[in-house]
Amino acid sequence: MTLAKRQILIAGVGTSPAVLTNAVWALAHHKKPIVPDEIAMKLMEEMV
Q1: Is 19 helix (H, G, I), strand (E, B) or coil?
Q2: What's the confidence (pLDDT) of residue 39?
Q3: pLDDT tens digits for 1-32?
Q4: How far apart are CA 10 and CA 18, in angstroms?
Q5: Dihedral over Cα of 45, 46, 47, 48: its sign
Q6: Over 60: is that where the pLDDT of 48 sits?
Q7: The pTM is what?
Q8: Do residues 34 and 28 lie in contact, with contact meaning Cβ atoms separated by under 8 Å?
């Protein structure tokens, strides 16, 4: 039995989660597209 290779994007996101959307779009539209099977996102608080 062989296991399928999975693409997992792990991201730390601050006050602008739209950055994650832009990153996924850019990966999908690259010369060699990468479309993650799973996205793990950690929301980070702004450091003051």
Answers
A1: helix
A2: 93
A3: 778 889 999 988 887 878 889 999 999 999 99
A4: 15
A5: negative
A6: no
A7: 0.69
A8: yes
Q: Are 1 and 30 in contact (CB under 8 A)?
A: no
Q: At 26, is the secondary structure helix, strand, or coil? A: helix
Please list, in sequence order, all residues whose beta carbon lies within 8 angstroms of the beta carbon of residue 27, skipping any fewer than 6 positions away: 9, 33, 34, 35, 36
Tell me the two tokens of residue 37. 């099977």
Find out whether 11 and 39 touch, Cβ atoms under 8 Å: yes
| Six-digit token string for 45 | 């608080």
Q: How far is CA 29 from the centre of its chain?
A: 14
